[in-house]
Design brief:
142 residues, mainly beta, Immunoglobulin-like, three-stranded antiparallel β-sheet, 1 helix, 39% strand, elongated
Length: 142
């Protein structure tokens, strides 16, 4: 867990009403991770299958409310969204609300960042937040 999340979690415990994530619980040892690509990968042509994983939680489609489950969101070239709001759906925040653990991605040439965030049935991040490390990948110009 990065320092800012640790501080926010401690503040939330001390200050009633401070929102750092949604109401859906997650085990403290839960973790989202990218299976592929790996940090530092070079993706020729910019098209690839991104593959996701989650540890100590289950995957369920959006709209299905079940404890310790959720679905993946891939954040591309952006910071993580606010943890107490619905994750936006745009070119930087891809939703996998049907419960998918992979998705076909196409990126233009350049340096890109990828990060997963796991969210509940309403696209709100769990409490505590479950997300992956941010990785960097490269797409060479042809």
């Amino acid at each position: 867990m990065n320092k800012s999340i640790m501080v926010a979690t401690m503040l939330a415990a001390l200050i009633p009403g401070l929102a750092i994530a949604g109401d859906s619980p997650a085990p403290y040892n839960a973790k989202a991770y990218l299976i592929w690509p790996k940090n530092g990968a070079t993706i020729k042509g910019g098209k690839f299958w991104a593959r996701f994983g989650v540890r100590n939680m289950g995957i369920a489609p959006a709209g299905i409310e079940k404890k310790f489950t959720g679905h993946h969101h891939l954040v591309i070239d952006a910071e993580l969204p606010p943890f107490d709001e619905e994750i936006p759906a745009d070119r930087n925040h891809l939703h996998y609300g049907k419960g998918y653990s992979e998705g076909r991605i196409k990126l233009p040439p350049g340096k890109h960042t990828l990060q997963l965030v796991f969210a509940d049935h309403d696209h709100i991040v769990h409490n505590p937040p479950v997300f992956s490390e941010k990785i960097t990948i490269y797409v060479p110009a042809n």
